[in-house]
What does this fold into?
Amino acid sequence: MLILLTIFLLIFTPFAMLVLHLVRPKFSIQGFLVVLAVLASWPMVLLARTADPQVITLLVWKPDILFSISPSLLIDDISWFFSLALMSVSLSLIITSITHLGQSFRSGQTHIRAEDEIVEGEGFSEQVISSSKPSIIDEYGVTPNWQSWAGILALTSFGLVAVSAGNMLTLMLAWAALDFTELVISLGQVMDSKSRERIILAFTARMAGIGMVLLAGIIPWSQGYSLSFEAISQSTSIYLILAAGLRLGVLPLHIPVSQSLPPRQWLGTVLRLVPAASSYILLVRVANIGVFGSITPYLLGFTALAGLYAAINWVNSRDELTGRPYWLLGTASMVITSTILKHPMASIAWSMASLLSGGLIFSMSTRHKNLIPIALLGVINFSTLPFTPTWLGTALYQYTNAISETIPPLLFYPLFIAYLFIHSLLLAGFIRHILRGIFPAQEKSPVHIEQWVWLLYPLGLAFTAVTHFLIGLWFRPNLNETPFIGWIMGVVTMIISGVIVFLSRRYPQVVYRRDQSGLTSSLNRFFSLEWLYRLFWQLFRLLSRLFSLLSTILEGDGGFLWALVLFALIFVFLQR
It folds into this structure.
């Protein structure tokens, strides 16, 4: 019941904030209310873990002939891990955003990102990050306000419903609520018609993911089973993986339309992480079944391609906010691969890494040398070293008997190398971005930071890093059953990542120029599916013109006669 109370609290708080804003529009009141809500919600989620799975029925739908199941919540270890991760990320984002109010530019300083340096090249200009200059991320000039905090709480509440969904029906309802909320927020951030068109098309793609889950539910429903996670089989798991992959942008490979939105730090991070968590939970449920068949090598190949593309762009990104879509795409490929290969614990480990490691680095709006311990803890958490939260993620490198039946060794080991480089590139990019402005130490910052900020800000960041570490301790593997490859993969990954970071610092111009190369730009345009969006939009306009023509005809002087003609045609067609 504590999870349910948390959901109600997070939904009620934004409405209370709106009423208080209308009655007494004081910013401090809104900040106090949102902090009180998250501080009360996090302990409730922490204490919600139960020894036995618990099912909470939300509504009872009638008649039973049409609705064999009703919306419900499932409280077990898996949903608890995801709920705790979402609440920790939300708490960290809200605390770090509040500390932004204690920062102001000193007199004589302009509102410019000091770490960005423009380098003119032949035919193009590019931004180069200088680690020797102050690294202050100010959410691109946007000050946190109560509307963004209300959006964070609302999205988190819907996310808790999604990760705690007791069946596929509840999950689809939560997906729909998340998609609609994201649609409203995204449309409020952009004004030009082109971006709005792409947002609508992206919303349609997410709805297609819901349709894929419905398609997967037809199979068990036709056999007399309900839309529960226990009814997932080999025949339905492929549809569910495609549904999650479609929403995450991995299967088929495409960059979500959110990349074109302003890279806001706090609300923008929740807009990316919460929908991702709602898809990860489905992948973890499916991971107990896996996908073993003739289609498995193709799924793994496309997933590896998506991961390599995302990892390369992540390590080459200007900063962590610019590379945020690639982080989610790269880590999602690791989750999907673990699901396909039937490694549920590895799927959980990579899901937690995507949410909590991502939440940590995306929350760091201010850099200082005193944050080195938190940054190092974040790097260790994502390293897959023994006894770290991602240690179980090394299971996807294991060539088990079940895998050998569908994937020959000549195909598995190239995939093994591909995912080793995917993780190494993601880790190298994580190190590069999280240490930017911290090591080497930054110069004197142009931003004046009040003393109370240095009390709350590290605590907000530590919440995410420590929670990730504790989750790793809670589901640590059996040491006697850990293979040799699980002990060494973390060390190998750290070595490769260290070499990549060294080369990027030693030869920075090579990295930045490659990021701006014609080949990379062409790949970005292709994988962003801009060409496909244009095609869909042309079809949409053609259909709208057709309907407009029909409307004009039917509303004209001869509209009644045309209606009779159409009715006669439909009647004749049905008679056949």
